[in-house]
TrEMBL record, chain A:
It is found in: Cell membrane. This is Phosphonate ABC transporter, permease protein PhnE. CDD domains: TM_PBP2. It comes from Heyndrickxia vini. The lineage of its organism: Bacteria, Bacillati, Bacillota, Bacilli, Bacillales. The keyword Cell membrane applies.
From TrEMBL, chain B:
Its main location: other. The gene is phnE. It comes from Heyndrickxia vini. The chain crosses the membrane at residues 14-32, 78-100, 184-203, 212-229, 241-260. Keywords: Membrane, Transmembrane, Transmembrane helix, Transport. This is Phosphonate ABC transporter, permease protein PhnE. The keyword Transmembrane helix applies. It comes from the Bacteria.
């Protein structure tokens, strides 16, 4: 890129990559019928919508406080259950804890598989089994946060300092002691940080789970949209926004201290 | 937490206890309010039906020359993720420079940029999709705009942080040799943050693929629409094949993206 008289590496690779990206984007645009004309034409509609949204229905805030609290509750419980189950799987997935490749590869495979399933689909699957309400939401979030926490946690475990572990092995600690006094103290702060991070994500996820009948604020959003009560939609959006901002701020503060 | 010989200052101890009490209070509240787990009367039946459907997925749905099939909708999902990521990767650049602390002398200016980015970030993409559907109509375009807009929040933050972490040496050398601001930007800062840029974009792409799979639930294109129809109709064999499709697609994307990212950093 700069004009120093050093022999530059071949540009072919860069050009090929660039062309490849262009082709992928072009094909994607073709596939999805993207046009800026449509966006431009649609902008007035957006204006109309915003017009209908304002002013928000302030009196509605009171009636959505209960579902909002239910949403937070779903996130708290779901993150907790998911976080607890994540610990053994994360330990099993770490190549420096479990030295047998077959075991940690299988554990990782399960973990990765679970992470690919969208939480909304999970919730929709739990609804016919547990009925409409918070329980499917909590379970969906548990599974979902299990995936996030287990992955981040096992990556943290794999980077720990082997020194204390070797020392413990040398003095004859068994595997359980080894994990409790050698591994856990080194990663506990990371774990707490990942737990909070997943909680932040879950608050947002929980807010939309009601869409498929899994309790919380999403149900109210769905209803308000269905009845074209856009002032209420805006109230819900503002409320969600406030809760998410507060949770993010607190969690960020704590996470900064942890690491 | 450990048994230190030196006692921690009293203020700190009070604070730690306060945190513990707050956490306990939150859990008491959460468990007290949670409804008890009760299986629906038809739960066993539903479970059986779901398992049966998952074990006997609707293979015919994979490719259907006449209409909407799995491959086509998955491809559309992928296209939504590609374009959404592309839009945000471009749009987030000015935001990133705005939010980076070392790009301006005014601290408040960069703080403001950070606040704007977190505001964009907290807005769930599903709600954004609903808004865009209103303006551009049902279909993948709304999904692309929603993803593109939402991703600015996260990408802008990560890019901003990598700009903040740039080394000063290259920059100072250029300034010393009389480069102007634009030249400094182009020759010192851009080359330094480019690998991080690409890596974060790919990482965001992985997340976007996941998000794109559910955007269709509100009508923003991709695999989500047939998925929600199948779920509402309790056609579990259809849900099964779509689920397998999503799992395979996301796994392949993750593997490819991770392989590329490994080379970048």
């Amino acid at each position: 890129m700069n004009s120093i008289k050093v022999k530059k590496p071949s540009k072919v690779k860069g050009i090929v990559t660039f062309l490849l990206i262009v082709v992928i984007i072009w094909a994607s645009a073709l596939n999805t019928d993207v046009s800026f004309q449509k966006l431009w034409d649609g902008l007035p509609n957006m204006g109309t919508l915003l017009n209908e949204m304002f002013p928000p229905d302030w009196s509605y805030f009171k009636s959505i406080t209960e579902p909002m609290l239910a949403t937070i509750r779903m996130a708290v419980l779901g993150t907790t259950f998911g976080g607890i189950v994540a610990i053994p799987i994360a330990l099993l997935s770490s190549s420096n804890v479990v030295r047998i490749p077959v075991i940690y590869q299988i554990a990782r495979f399960i973990m990765n598989l679970i992470r690919t399933i969208p939480e909304l689909l999970l919730a929709a699957l739990f609804v016919p089994i547990f009925g409409i309400g918070e329980i499917p939401g909590i379970l969906a979030i548990s599974v979902f946060s299990f995936g996030i926490i287990a992955k981040l946690f096992y990556e943290a475990i794999e980077t720990i300092d082997p020194g204390p572990l070797e020392a413990m092995t040398a003095v004859g600690a068994n595997k359980i002691q080894w994990i409790f006094f050698g591994v856990i103290p080194q990663v506990i702060a990371h774990y707490a940080s990942f737990f909070l991070y997943s909680f932040e994500i879950n608050i947002r996820a929980a807010a939309i789970l009601g869409y498929v009948g899994a309790g919380g604020i999403g149900l109210f959003l769905n209803n308000a949209l269905g009845f074209f009560q856009y002032d209420r939609v805006l109230s819900i959006i503002i409320y969600t926004f406030i809760v998410v901002v507060i949770v993010d701020a607190i969690s960020n503060k704590i996470r900064e201290k942890l690491l | 937490m450990s048994q230190n010989q030196i006692k921690k200052p009293i203020g700190k101890r009070i604070r730690n206890w306060a945190i513990v009490l707050i956490v306990i209070a939150i859990y008491v509240w959460a468990f007290a309010g949670a409804p008890s787990i009760a299986l629906k009367d038809s739960a066993i039946q539903a479970l059986k039906a779901i398992f049966h459907g998952f074990l006997h997925p609707d293979w015919d749905y994979i490719y259907d020359p006449a209409g909407e099939d799995l491959l086509r909708t998955l491809l559309e999902t992928l296209a939504i993720a590609v374009l959404g990521t592309f839009i945000s990767a471009i749009l987030c650049v000015p935001f990133a420079f705005w939010a980076a602390r070392n790009m301006t002398k005014h601290r408040t200016l960069s703080s403001l940029g950070k606040i704007v980015l977190s505001c964009i970030r907290v807005f769930p993409e599903l709600i954004m999709a609903l808004l865009f559907i209103k303006s551009v109509g049902l279909g993948p375009f709304a999904g692309i705009l929603a993803l593109g807009f939402h991703s600015i929040g996260m990408l802008g933050k990560l890019f901003g942080e990598s700009i903040e972490n740039t080394e000063f040496t290259a920059r100072e050398a250029l300034i010393a040799s009389g480069a102007n601001k634009l030249q400094v930007l182009w020759f010192a800062i851009i080359p330094e943050i480019m690998p991080a840029f690409m890596s974060y974009t790919l990482y965001r792409f992985e997340i976007s693929v996941r998000s794109a799979t559910i955007l269709g639930i509100v009508g923003a294109g991709g695999i989500g629409a047939p998925l929600i129809f199948a779920l509402n109709g309790h056609s579990w064999d259809r849900v099964g094949i779509i689920l397998y499709g999503i799992i395979i697609m996301v796994t392949i994307i993750d593997l490819i993206s991770a392989a590329i990212r490994k080379r970048l950093v």
